[in-house]
Each structure stands twice: as structure tokens, then as C-alpha cells.
Amino acid sequence: MTRASEAPTDPRRRLKDLPTGPGVYRMLDADGTVLYVGKAKNLKRRVSSYFGRTLTPRHERLVSLIADIEVTVTRTEGEALLLESQLIKSLQPRFNVLLRDDKSYPYIQLTTQDDYPRLAFYRGPRQTEGRLFGPYPSAWAVRETLQILQKLFPVRQCEDGFFRHRSRPCLQYQIKRCSAPCVGLVTPEQYAEDVARTVKFLDGRAGEVIEELIGAMETASAALEFERAAQYRDRIQALRRVLERQSVIGEDGDLDLIACAREADVWCVQVFVVRRGRHLGNTAFFPKAPADMEESALLAGFLAQFYATHEVPDTLILSTRPDEAEILREALAERAGRPVRLQAEVRGERARWLDMARDNACFALQQRLGSQAGYARRLESLREALELADRPERMECFDISHTQGEHTVASCVVFDGEGARKSDYRRFNITGITPGDDYAALDQALTRRYTRVGQGEYPIPDLILIDGGRGQLAAVNDALQELGLHGLNLVGVSKGPDRRPGTERLWLLGREAPVILPSDSPAMHLIQQIRDEAHRFAITGHRQRRAKARVTSALEDIPGLGPKRRQRLLKHFGGQRGLERAGVEDIAGVEGIGRSLAQRIHAAFHRDQA
Predict the structure, then answer these.
(1) Which of 304, 472, 497, 523 could potentially form a cystine with 382 if both were Cys, beta carbons 3.0 to 4.6 Å apart?
(2) What is the mean pLDDT of the chain?
(3) Where are the beta strands (DSSP E) in 22-99?
């Protein structure tokens, strides 16, 4: 990397010192903020071209702001492309194509490390226990597939804590969507067969599963087990219906179909995912791009960023040929560890699917533009209602959720000029306060949040909303003052006298009377949307924390009481509630439980009575 200790007055002075090999360059303004990141086969030639030719209006604006140039030399142009995508994602330069939604694709996880493996939704690092199937384009696609699998193969999907403490079958067994391994109603061999068929189905080998089920059906029928044969017949029919709905005719490999749509300065990129010949779903992305960006350039930037964090399939079917397609293909192949094909001219069934991707991109774009126009009106209405100098570009809202003071969770949701920014949402598990003290909970949440804001980890919001009235607003203001954050716009949102939506009162610092907006005010609709989202996010976190505490049974903390003994106890007493009512002698009468252990078990449920 090359950079002087002080930025030169004219960035052209850098040009003579630039290397002629491949690498990445970064354009910086006078404050050191990165304006643009690019890659080049010849750094000196590429960077010099910005200062010696007729430029587009976008490039003219960029050059007028450049105060310094940094470069990083790489070994190959493909390596430069991958580094460029990483820097764009981390630095978010204003003149680059920015892919805002950077969440990883979700997967289906099979916990093969368990005696009775479980199917579950999974999103996270690929290096994890068990086996992952996917990726799927959305959480909805994963959950739909899990529902299908429940109907086809009775493999458990319950949480481990729920599974370990069952003493009788749950509802899933009654409706024939689980074989109840938790209480031993299926043999390990039978369960392993269902798991093996599930793996084959997810691997795209559904034909083998159908052949196996046909064989099992014929065997059962020959043995006069007609009820069992009918069950196999129903599974075969259900499996064939699923395959007819999900199959992409003529495909048996992995590919993504990617199409773009544009209106005004807004872009939509639609990604259709096909794995092993099955369409797993699609999702839309709305990258930020300069106004005069061409589709080929946008697609090149999107692909480089998107596949830096997502699995690269064997084939990409594209609505147009991207810029520097050969370099992009080589870089993707290097990352995938195998050849990758980029196709922009397709016929037959692939052309039909690509047209479908284009239609979906146009539809998603129209929905986006319609919602953005309404959202912009709400923002302007909010600015006028609260008498703000400028339209708020970042708003943060806090809410508290608990059950009678227990398992308190605070939420912080973030909205910007385009809507909810879910990647910036945060939850705070509140500890060390008097149960039910919402003021202390708010103080702790805001102190933790805005200590990091003060350190520069997050931008300072233009508006902070608090679910509460004048008291909560004062507590928040005191917390911010102690952190040295002054002059922030604070608004408390309290319910009206009859607690009906649309009658909320807005409390502002320094005002004795609340601001009451009409129920049909766009500003009120936006405040309700943000407040409700904070409430939903807080309640979800609280329920998760409470459920985790309930699942973690008091039995698990008792030394010498392993899983088998716990299950034997719960089965003997019909559940934890029956065990809590049992005496020491009753507990000691269970096989494998001595008197000393029975006393420890009894004490674990009666500490408050000691």
C-alpha cells in the first residue's frame, strides 16, 4: 500500500509513482473518506485515465473531490477483483455499486452428531456440526421445505431441550409428522432409514427414494400389512407432487438465474436459485448505484460482491453480459475451486426461466418504488410535525419487554431514508436492575448503545424514539447527558387515554404539553410503524430468553443426574410438575436414584422453602 503522511494538494502527483501491475486503487477526499474503490490490470494506466480524458458527469464529480489515492498491489487481476469486492463491502464508498443486503443464505441443518438427528433452520458459518443442505434464497424457502419434509419423512424438528424432557409423544406424532423417537416409539434402525431418505431427497436423489418406497410398499402388501402399504403409497404420491412443483425441466445441476430491472435511478436484481434441478425460490436485491451506471457494469459489481459471501454455483444465467466477464469468471472459479460458466444468451427452458426472473425483477421494482414514494411522504410529514430542520435520515427506537420483571430485554430498531435497516437492529439482555424498573432498563440499554456510538462504531441518529411518556424521556435524556451526547432529537411515544392506535401522544423535551397528531397523519403512521417494530423485536427477544430459561431445567444443574436418569424421572412422575410435588422417598424409589441423589433433586425444587 502506498500513501504519504499528508495528502498532496494535487492527486496527479501520485501518478508517476504508481506501479504498472494489477491491484486495487482507492480514491479519497480531503477528509480521508474513501470515495471510490476500483481494480485494474495496470494500476498506473487505469488511474491516470481518470485525469486525461473526457469523463462522464459521474466521473467528473468523482475527480473533483479526489484529494489522495491509495493502491494495493496484487498478484493477478482476479485477486484484485476479489479484494475490490471486499473493500466495497467494508468501506461502502458513495461512487460504487453498493449491495446493502449482505445476509448469508439460510440452510437446512441435519444434526448427524445426534443419536436421533434433527432437521432445523440454520443461518451462520458453514463450519458447524452436522450436515448443511442449501443454500436457500430466503428463510421462507427453508421453512416451506421443512414443512414438506415433515409430511414426507417423520424426522424430528423439535429443539433438543424439548426432545430430552418428553415423557409422552407430542402433537406431531399424533398427526403423523414425527415418529416419536423421544419416547422410543421408533427403533433406531427405522429412524435411520427415514433420515437416509431425507438426505437423498435433499441431495436431489428423490428418484431413488421413490424406488425404495415402492419396494417397501410391495413388501408390506405381500406380507398382508395393507395399512403400512397404504402409508408408503401416500408418501410416494406426496413426493411426486412435490417434485412436479419444484422441478426445473431439463435441469439437474446447480445454477443461479440473475436478471436486472431499472426505473429512474433505482435498480433491482432478482436471483433465482436452482439446486440439483429443483427451484428453491428467489429473492430481490436493490443495490445502490450511481445515476449513469450501465446494466453490464452494475451486474459486474453485484456479482463480485454477492459471491464474495455466497456459494458459487456451476452456472450463472445472466440477463446481460457483465463488464470484464472473463476476469469475473476466472475469479469466481478460483473462489469455487472448479470451473464456472457465465451465460447471457440462452434458449429454450432456460430462456423461459430467465424471462420469469426479469418479470419478477420488474414487479419487485414497482413495489419498491411505490413503497418508497409513500415512505418519503411520511418522512417529510414527520419532519414538519416535529419541526426538525432536516428530514431524518437515521431513526432509532427503543422498547422494553419482560414478564413481571423477569428476563428483561431491550430492543433497538433502526430506520433510515429507505426504511427498516434490520442489519443494525440490536437487543440487550438487561441484568442487575430491580425487576420491573423500566427506567433502569432504558438507562442500561441506552448507555450500552450510545457508548459505542460515542466511540464511532455507529452513526449518531437524527431522531431517537422511546416507547413511553415524559418519565421515560427524562430518563433517556439523563443517560445521554452522562455520555456527553447533547442536542439529540428525542421523542417519547405514549398511548392515548383509550389506548387505541392513532391516539398516541408525542412528548418532546422542553414542552409541557404533548404533540397530538391526527390519526390519519403520515407522520403518525410512520411513528406507529417504527414503534410497533421495536415492540415486536423486544417481545421476540424476551420470549426467546424466557423459553431458553424454561427449557434449561433445574434437573440439568444437579451433579450425577444424567440424561437417562432425567428421562426416567420425568416418565415416572409424568413430567416436571409431578416431580416437583414428589417427596424424597418417592424420588428415591425410582430405579437408579439413590437417597442422596433424591435429596439433591428434592432440594433443587424447594430451595425457597428451606
Answers:
(1) 523
(2) 82
(3) 23-28, 34-40, 68-73
pLDDT at 252: 64
**pLDDT score, position 413:** 94
57: cell is: 458527469
Per-residue pLDDT, averaged over 2-23, amounts to: 67
Distances (CA, A) of 609 to 583, 595, 598: 14, 20, 17
Three-point CA angle 537, 538, 543, nearest 5°: 100
The grid coordinates of residue 431 equal 441484568
Give the residue-averaged pLDDT of 48-70: 80
Name the band, by pLDDT with cuts 50, 70 and 90, for residue 212.
confident
Q: How far is CA 276 from CA 205, 213, 279, 520, in A?
A: 9, 21, 9, 50
Residue 238 grid cell: 406426496
All three cell numbers of 472, joined, read 421515560
Q: Is the pLDDT of residue 397 over 90?
A: yes
- Dump the DSSP string for 494-515: E--TT--TT--EEEETT-SSPB
How is residue 541 annotated by DSSP? H
Candidates 382, 166, 365, 124; CA nearest to 260 is 365
H-helix or E-strand containing 288? Answer: none
Angle between helices 325-336 and 77-91 (to 10 degrees): 80
Strand partners, 188: none
- pLDDT, tens only, 260-272: 998 877 889 999 8
Q: Which three cell numbers stand for residue 399?
A: 422498547
Q: Can you tell me the distance from the alpha carbon of 178 to that of 158, in angstroms, rounded to the nearest whole number?
A: 10
